[in-house]
Design goal:
By secondary structure, the protein is α/β, with parallel strands linked by helices. About 35% of the residues lie in helices and about 25% in strands. A five-stranded mixed beta sheet has the order 5-6-7-9-8. A hairpin with a 2-residue loop joins strand 14 (about 410-420) and strand 15. The longest helix has about 35 residues, at about 175-210.
């Protein structure tokens, strides 16, 4: 930016991360969270309090990067020709994709963007989006926020994780269907490679984590761990060990990594606590990035664990935050039917800040247990109780959630529609199961 300024260029930066102490020397740095620095008392959870609505400051601060860019486009429409007012709505398919995949809260303006963006995507004229839907196995008339987060997003992100995001951009800007399909298939292949590399790093990271049982915060590192993948690995390690996790790629004298957390522990604030021993870093409370000298990794590990202790966290109390909380406890399985499923669909789009309703039913019997997948990593169980049988599926289930036929269990789950050979049935996506003590 400094060099561009020296050349006489004006630069506008759009951002949505936590605000850095020093802003770049651009013409403008557009970041809604800067308002939180200026008016902290006027916001609650990034939303302007009712009593300040008339103050004329922006009401919603949790826009993703794509949302800030969309706001800039809307502002430019008031000053420049080229995109007639009202036509910006046809950009909402891209806004929805970026909003879901950036895992911001699906509240307020984000929720509107995703709701209408899904409508636009159903009618999309972009050959790239149509091709990506095809290779992802998503029907246009059945697109949900989950389709974006688990189908389209991972394929587009795979390009940047392994090589360059240019491949994804080429697909999005393709002007004909054949070119777009070729690009989409390339992304699909790269996503398979990403999953394979991810599994390898994950297994190596587990070996390190098993040696750090006394650490409340895990800091794992190695050379050869692809920097574009380690963020996903950090999330998987967090899920497995229920501990905030930093995963670093060592590249000679410098290491770069990603962090994931949950609950009240802020990985971004822990990085700030380590400012004197790192090169740079920052991000969100639950996800952040850091660059530091490789020689300082052990010191960084001690520092973030010290931060954890000084904040007064208790790991067992933190773990409770990961347990599901039921929105509704069913008394019998017969309550689950297509009408219930259709009713909860009206509350979509689901995502961060507006999660799918979680159901719970207690003291039901395990009728059948089936393992699926190449490594038997997926679990399908059939439970029985008042009202008949019900199938529940969990992908990549943790061993501690294993159950046996004949046991009585309490289960927590969301609802999904299974369509096979023209038949439609309601099944559950298993979130948690606990065996009832006899």
């Amino acid at each position: 930016i400094i060099y561009a300024k020296e050349l006489g260029m004006d630069v506008i930066v759009t951002d949505h991360h936590n605000v850095a102490p020093v802003q770049p020397p651009a013409v403008a740095v557009i970041n809604p969270k800067r308002l939180l620095m200026d008016f902290p008392e006027k916001y609650e959870n990034f939303i302007l309090k009712d009593e300040y609505i008339t103050d004329g400051i922006y009401p919603f601060l949790d826009l993703p990067g794509v949302g800030v860019a969309f706001k800039l486009i809307q502002a430019l429409q008031t000053e420049l020709d080229g995109l007639p007012l009202g036509q910006e709505k046809w950009l909402l398919d891209l806004v929805a994709l970026g909003t879901v995949c950036d895992v911001v809260t699906l509240r307020d303006e984000n929720r509107s963007h995703v709701f209408w963006g899904l409508k636009v995507m159903e009618k999309t004229r972009r050959p790239g989006i149509s091709a990506l839907l095809e290779v992802s196995g998503v029907e246009k008339d059945a697109i949900t926020a989950r389709s974006l987060g688990f189908g389209l997003g991972p394929r587009m992100n795979a390009a940047g994780r392994l090589e360059t995001a240019q491949y994804s951009l080429d697909m999005l800007t393709a002007s004909d269907g054949f070119t777009a399909l070729d690009k989409a298939r390339l992304l699909d292949d790269m996503n398979r490679k990403r999953r394979s590399d991810q599994d390898k790093i994950f297994k190596e990271a587990i070996l390190q984590a098993e040696k750090m049982t006394s650490d409340n915060v895990l800091v794992l590192s190695s050379s050869g761990w692809n920097h574009g993948i380690i963020g996903i690995v950090a999330a998987k390690i967090l899920e497995k060990y229920k501990k905030p996790t930093y995963v670093l790629e060592e590249v000679g004298e410098e290491s770069k990594g990603s962090a994931r957390s949950y609950g009240e522990f802020s990985v971004a604030n822990a990085i700030r606590f380590s400012d004197d021993i790192i090169t740079k870093g920052g991000g969100h409370n639950l996800a952040a990035g850091v660059t530091l000298p490789t020689k300082n990794i052990d010191l960084f590990r001690k520092r973030v664990n010290k931060f954890y202790q000084e904040q007064g966290f208790n790991l067992e109390e933190q773990k409770k935050l990961l347990l599901p909380k039921a929105d509704y406890e069913l008394s019998e399985l017969s309550q689950i039917d297509i009408d219930l499923f259709n009713d909860i669909k009206k509350m979509e789009p689901y995502g961060n800040g507006n999660p799918e309703p979680i159901f719970c039913i207690k003291s039901v019997g395990v009728k059948n247990v089936r393992y699926m997948g190449q490594d038997s990593q997926h679990l399908k169980i059939t439970i029985e109780g008042n009202g008949g049988d019900f199938n529940l599926l969990m992908f990549n289930f943790p061993p501690e959630l294993n159950v046996e036929v004949g046991q009585m269990v309490n289960v927590w789950f969301t609802l999904t529609l299974n369509e096979w050979m023209g038949r439609r049935s309601i099944e559950g996506m298993l979130i948690h199961v606990e065996v009832v003590d006899e």
